[in-house]
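Review session, final week

We close the course with one last complete record, chosen because it touches almost every idea we covered. It is MgtC/SapB/SrpB/YhiD N-terminal domain-containing protein, a protein from Acidovorax delafieldii 2AN with 219 residues. Go through it on your own first, then we will talk.
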Amino acid sequence: MQSSDAFFAALAVLASALGCGLLMGIERERRKGTGPMRALAGVRSFTLVSLAGAAAALAGIAALVVVGAAMVAALGVAAYVRDRSDDPGVTTEVALLLAYLIGVTCARDQLLAAALAVVATGLLALRETLHQFSSEWLQPGEVRSGLILAALALLVYPLAPDAPLWQGVLNPRVLVRLVIVLLVIQSLAHLGRRLLQARHAMALSALASGFVSSTATIA
């Protein structure tokens, strides 16, 4: 009975890896091209690499997982070196390694692996949109503001002490959290003003300003 349960559990892991690999591979196949200039990998390569990652993880040998990752990375480096295009990117090579790691993750957490595959496929599919957004739509000041917000959320917030200071008056982490919330609200309002028509943008700005004021008052 236990062997049967283990078999079906392994089958579920492989099925998850198969689905994740197919999802990423189908998107890459659309951009692979043909002839000598075609890209490194398509639907079959991504599916096989994801399955290989799941199989290596199911084997329970850590060295096998590391060796598999090294082989996929070496394959990506070799493909990058032989790329004949004027501006060779590394998106497909990195995505292929990610597909292997997602396959490994399927053996531990299938929900996390599926989420990673969906996010990765979305980023791959939105290539032109993201390029246009970052190069044409965003302004330099907005990029700087975004970097400051990211630094607050990813660096300052985790390092801020989570204990009352100054005679128990303020908690630094709560204060940083409040600043992050206010900046996010202001950023969303700013983006809304640029995206919406003028009369709708004014209403959104008023709503955001009121929300910021009430949030600061409650805090």
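Two points worth writing down before the exam:
The chain has a mean pLDDT of 79.
The CA atoms of residues 80 and 89 lie 8 Å apart.
Good luck, everyone.
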